[in-house]
């Protein structure tokens, strides 16, 4: 039976709502419609490539999702979802899945069947350990696990050899996880708002890293070996000094050290002289 929020969406209305987005993909937006379930007729529409059902009151992604054979992007963020049907694996063209700000703690193992699946967003859920399926999602290039309850990553996480962007901010990590250190494809890492405290591990391929608000007291001199680093964010930590090796980062464009206990930057430091680095010392922390 259709819910009260879904009854107004007849098939003819849904067809009229189906539009081409700037990339010429067929998009259906049901954002902020107070839906408790996805209207049944949505699954009978031909050719929907992007489905936006974010900011509703959905509690699950139903088995009928299997009928959306052309689906490439599904945004179901900001709902109350606790269950994703295993039938989502039948959406063979699915590339991007946004389930941020729901109530998920696990995902169906069948997701591993999706060969084009490259972007997964799980920010703000109830995840305390990595769902077993995640390390098997080898096509992934973008993964957002921010604002969960994670403290460790399994060794199998290193199987994500194509991962370029990883967000682990606002969790319970006390160090940069070992599987991450060995990920040679990783370009951008956000570890902000954790409790790392010690030092920054060497990450060979990294271009952007954020360890703001991490109670970081000491920065590893090996940071100077991250030759591709373009952005280093260290704001609101407990740093008193920066290692001289940081001056060897020839590609560095952004260095944010705001609100630490620093009195000065390393001198001499030629990379500052050509204005490729923007620094903000701010006021020293008093804690």
TrEMBL record:
ATP-binding found in the keyword field: no
Name the UniProt record assigns to this protein: Leucine-rich repeat protein SHOC-2-like
Gene3D superfamilies registered for this protein in UniProt: Ribonuclease Inhibitor (3.80.10.10)
Gene it is expressed from: LOC109481965
Species of origin: Branchiostoma belcheri
Keyword terms of this UniProt record: Leucine-rich repeat, Repeat
Ion transport found in the keyword field: no
UniProt-listed SMART domains: LRR_BAC, LRR_SD22, LRR_TYP
Superkingdom to which the source organism belongs: Eukaryota
PANTHER family per the UniProt record, alphabetical: PTHR48051, RAS SUPPRESSOR PROTEIN 1
């Amino acid at each position: 039976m259709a819910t009260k929020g879904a009854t107004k969406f007849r098939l003819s209305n849904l067809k009229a709502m189906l539009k081409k987005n700037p990339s010429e993909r067929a998009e259906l937006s049901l954002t902020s419609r107070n839906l408790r379930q996805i209207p049944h007729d949505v699954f009978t529409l031909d050719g929907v490539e992007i489905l936006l059902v974010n900011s509703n009151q959905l509690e699950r992604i139903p088995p009928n999702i299997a009928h959306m054979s052309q689906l490439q992007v599904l945004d179901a963020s900001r709902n109350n979802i606790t269950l994703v049907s295993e039938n989502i694996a039948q959406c063979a063209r699915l590339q991007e899945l946004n389930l941020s700000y729901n109530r998920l703690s696990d995902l169906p193992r069948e997701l591993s069947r999706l060969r084009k699946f490259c972007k997964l967003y799980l920010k703000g859920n109830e995840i305390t350990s990595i769902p077993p399926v995640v390390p098997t999602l080898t096509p992934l290039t973008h993964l957002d696990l921010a604002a969960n309850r994670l403290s460790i990553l399994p060794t199998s996480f290193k199987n994500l050899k194509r991962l370029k962007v990883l967000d682990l901010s606002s969790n319970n990590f006390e160090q940069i996880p070992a599987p991450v250190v060995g990920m040679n494809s990783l370009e951008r890492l956000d570890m902000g708002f954790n409790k790392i405290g010690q030092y920054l591990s060497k990450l060979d391929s990294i271009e952007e890293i954020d360890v703001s608000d991490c109670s970081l007291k000491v920065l590893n001199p090996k940071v100077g070996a991250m030759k591709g680093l373009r952005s280093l964010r260290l704001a609101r930590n407990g740093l008193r000094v920066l290692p001289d090796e940081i001056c060897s980062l020839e590609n560095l464009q952004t260095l944010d050290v705001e609100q630490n206990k620093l009195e000065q930057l390393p001198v001499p430091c030629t990379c500052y002289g050509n204005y490729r680095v923007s620094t903000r010392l701010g006021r020293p922390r008093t804690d």
